[in-house]
Write a structure and sequence with these properties.
Strand order of the largest sheet: 10-9-8-11-12-14-13
Oligomer: single chain
Shape: globular
Radius of gyration: 21 Å
Number of helices: 11
Structural class: alpha/beta
Largest sheet: 7 strands, mixed
Length: 323
């Protein structure tokens, strides 16, 4: 398998939250190059070594670099989009820390746009659950007795290939009923919200911190024959934007889907409880399985009753009901 190398520029202070972001995106292996630590090491006498190349001691570039690798295939491309969305969240809310530029650099020899188009040749139609057929927008729709969901993710997360997305799609099949109103928090390409509309939802409120998602959401709605009047997109931080939370609450949601990360889900669970009508369903995913119990506890503390949990490979989903 071919791998592509990526570098994110940060600071010593930013290393921990950045590594947490990568872990939450499903990237378990990373390398940290901190010039300050390297110089400190070289300036501290040690009996275990007596020589080092002078070039290693130089620190012309003061940035800390967090290095990781992604497979050169559709799954790697999906993870790259997840990382980009995570970086946007960190830039929006740095928690008062000096995180540096958070600039993402590629050492693939291809720019992101070329690489993110390159894997399209491997992205083919596939089924999800009992009712859905996900079809890339540039592929012919095969004959099938299923609801067809056509997607062109563009440069935002949401091809349907990621396990966390599939876990959400499976639950939307079960809980979306005609006439319902739903919210898609951290919508990316809009795949979950558009799926809800195709399953019969009357309307969907889609939110993403990345303003670039708006174009993908409305384009994907159009290629699925969804009238724009049924889909509202707003760019904003669902964690901190009180006006945005109020606007969603006024819609009267029966289903909320959030395919984000554990930290965000834990933080917004009380707000989702307020957004949902009584008996409403909260479908949350993007949770690394090692953090499942922690997120279950956060959702229960917000007032929800857990209906069930599910795990696919390293990713978990929680389905909860507002009493």
């Amino acid at each position: 398998m071919k791998w592509n190398k990526y570098v994110i520029r940060t600071t010593s202070e930013g290393t921990e939250p950045l590594c947490a972001l990568l872990l939450n995106s499903g990237i378990n292996g990373m390398e940290i190059d901190d010039p300050a630590e390297r110089l400190d090491f070289f300036n501290t006498p040690s009996p275990d070594w007596d020589y080092a190349e002078d070039a290693l001691k130089e620190a012309d570039d003061p940035d800390v670099k967090v290095i990781f690798y992604l497979s050169d295939n559709p799954y790697g491309a999906e993870l790259l989009l997840s990382v980009k969305e995570g970086l946007n969240r960190l830039k929006e809310n740095s928690f008062g820390l000096d995180l540096g530029s958070l600039e993402l650099e590629s050492e693939t020899g291809l720019n992101d746009e070329i690489w993110l188009n390159k894997w399209k040749e491997y992205y083919k139609p596939f089924t999800v659950g009992e009712k859905l057929l996900v079809v890339p927008a540039w592929e012919e729709t095969p004959s099938a007795d299923r609801i067809t969901l056509k997607i062109n993710p563009g440069n935002v997360f949401g091809t349907g290939l990621h396990q966390s997305t599939q876990l959400c799609l499976e639950e939307l099949e079960r809980y979306i009923k005609p006439g319902m109103y739903a919210a898609d928090l951290g919508c990316g390409s809009g795949i979950l919200g558009i799926c809800a509309l195709l399953l019969g939802a009357e309307g969907v409120f889609a939110v993403d911190i990345d303003k670039n998602a708006e174009k993908s959401v409305y384009e994907n709605a159009e290629i699925n024959g969804i009238d724009k009047s049924r889909l509202t997109f707003k760019a904003g931080n669902i964690v901190t934007d009180e006006a945005l939370k109020t606007e969603i609450s006024q819609k009267g949601c029966q289903v909320v889907a959030a395919n984000i990360v554990a930290d965000v889900i834990n933080g917004i669970a009380p707000d989702v409880y307020k957004i949902l009508d009584k008996g409403g369903i909260f479908i949350s995913s993007g949770i690394i399985k090692d953090r499942l119990n922690e997120t279950v506890e956060a959702i229960e503390n917000a007032g929800f009753k857990i209906k069930e949990t599910a795990t696919k490979n390293e990713w978990s989903r929680i389905t909860a009901e507002k009493g």
